[in-house]
Amino acid sequence: MSMCKWTNEVERFADGEASDTPTVEAHLATCAACSQHHATLLRFRTSLAALPAAPVLSDEQFTAFMSGIETELSQKRRRPGGFWALMSLSAAALLIALATFSVFTGPGPVRANEVESVSTQIDGATVHWDNSDDGVTTIWISIGEDDV
Fold it and tell me: Has this prediction a pTM greater than 0.85?
């Protein structure tokens, strides 16, 4: 439904509280959105009127009703426990233990910078490399003095 600035006034009109009834009626005749909204409000009101009325409690019924509520509220609630509480606690302890284990042990050092092979396209050059224990790789290229 598209909104019109007359929507609130149409709702008041449907409730019988419009400040200027002839003006609202004239607007309903020209505005399709408000006319549809007014029809929806009237259908809603008719549907509500068709519902059965809520039962009325006598004083004795009301007293018994409130007494039942007070009794339920005053009773101690049973705390959840037993098997499922133990299983939840065990699962939480296992997750904490696994997280702690993975943090303190962790994976080994990453050796992504180790060189496994080298080559060159320079004629007469030789390539050498060395992977140190601390993860540093050194590569050097030897070229004969005559080739420089």
Answer: no
